[in-house]
Amino acid sequence: MRAIHHWIDGKEAPGTSGRTADVFNPATGEVQAKVDLATKSEMDAAIERAAEAQVKWGATNPQRRARVMMEMVRLLNRDMDKMAEMLSSEHGKTFPDAKGDIQRGLEVIEFSIGAPHLLKGEFIDGAGPGIDMYSMRQPLGVVAAITPFNFPAMIPLWKLGPALASGNAVILKPSERDPSVPNMIAALFKEAGLPDGVLQVVHGDKEAVDAILDSEIIQAVGFVGSTPIAQYIYERAAQTGKRAQCFGGAKNHMIIMPDADLDQAADALVGAGYGAAGERCMAISVAVPVGEETADRLIEKLVPRIEKLKVGPWTAGNDIDYGPVVTKAAKENILRLVERGVEQGAELVVDGRDFSLQGYENGFFVGPHLFDRVTPDMDIYRTEIFGPVLSTVRAASYEEALKLAMDHEYGNGTAIFTRDGDAARDFASRCNIGMVGINVPIPVPLAYFTFGGWKKSGFGDLNQHGPDAFRFYTRTKTVTARWPSGIKEGAAFNFKAMD
Predict the structure, then answer these.
(1) Which of 192, 291, 365, 489 makes a 20 to 30 Å CA pair with 150?
(2) What Gene Ontology terms describe what this protein does at the molecular function level (predicted)?
């Protein structure tokens, strides 16, 4: 049985707790590895050694730190296929999707090459008699990243690029469900020139998370996961004076206006709703057609597309549309919510409950589901299902459709499909949601913009990647300097006002 250890001080380090977690092959349901789970003392020791390593790294000039990012881009491209294979084997997503996972993380590393520019402060001379004033952006010290199972490459890279380029040391606590790729990333950073100890990968469960939150050394925590845990980490971090950037769940609506290209909208819904088996925080899980005729025509176009979806293991080839979900518990929860939708009166237009894949009967595969005539009081509408389930909520008007998206407790992403520029501009301006797509179903911003949801999808003032990330991982110091000129005037006993 393959053993997955921590990555401490630039090398693999077996755990000492005696506790491990199973790492499954989601396609077969078999345990393929065991990952070490850290104790509080193991986490504390890793944090202390990171603090020691950070002093020299933080004093390294930004351009040299940026060169590590530059080399990291080359190495990620070199090892892309190898990493994607490992990612697919532990997560279950298709090989092209796994490569996309890595690519979107790589783009943030590319953006982080520009750290010297982003870390520049401000300066003004002559603020007063002989007085200059300037600000500096300095690293926080040791920061932590707690990352989810659904993007085991992208989200760690989103955190690591800006945090490391800013001069911090990072404790990465990845998901224990697919832990190998984070270790591979750490090994690549070492090869790229990152000093030992500056990046520590510590695997664990709640005990490890609480050790991070209780640490007096950790200055900031970045988290992506479910809303209850995001709120827990945000509150605990605030109690101990840490910065926190916590992103939670989502229920993303896509509004389809009567003038929309329905073939384009249907293709977008299928890709955004069922890609990665729906295990994306930016997945479209609610379609909102405006008007009965629009809804009827949309359902007609969706059904054949959904029924043709290819579900299978990543090893079956690149034409597979999506693979299994990550665990048996996840599969059971999805099917439980589907049953609840039927019980509460939603119309199950495409029923994937009996889906079974020959030769992979023990895998965690879930067939595609499409609900119609869903109402906002139903569990399948209120809850983030995180599976291949698309719900259709019919709206009588644009205002009703907009209100659905705005009234939901989550505010991660949303989209509108229309040919009407006025409707699109109004929607983008008024909706209280962090990321908006106009004829774009999954509006994940590029690396030089910031990623973040509103309402119960995000806790904290600054978003992921883009300029916000460098603000989050640095603190501003302002210096007021006076260089007196002329004859010394002697001591002054009052604070001289600025002229």
Answers:
(1) 192
(2) methylmalonate-semialdehyde dehydrogenase (acylating, NAD) activity
pLDDT at 487: 53
pLDDT of residue 412: 95
Could you read off the pLDDT of 460-476 as tens digits, one per residue?
Answer: 989 999 999 999 999 99
Which of 181, 209, 281, 288 does the annotation list as catalytic? 281
The CATH number of 252-438, from 3.40.309.10, 3.30.450.40, 3.40.50.150, 2.60.120.560, is 3.40.309.10
Report pTM: 0.94
State the first-to-last Cα distance of the chain, in angstroms, to the nearest integer: 74
Q: Which residues of the chain have pLDDT under 70?
A: 485-499
Backbone angles phi, psi at 85, to 5 degrees: -60, -45
Catalytic residue check, 281:
yes
Rg (CA), the chain: 25
Task: Quote the CA–CA distance of 423 and 438 in Å, as a whole number.
Answer: 10
Q: What is the CATH number of domain 2-248+457-481?
A: 3.40.605.10
Residue 324 CA, chain-centre distance (Å), reads 20
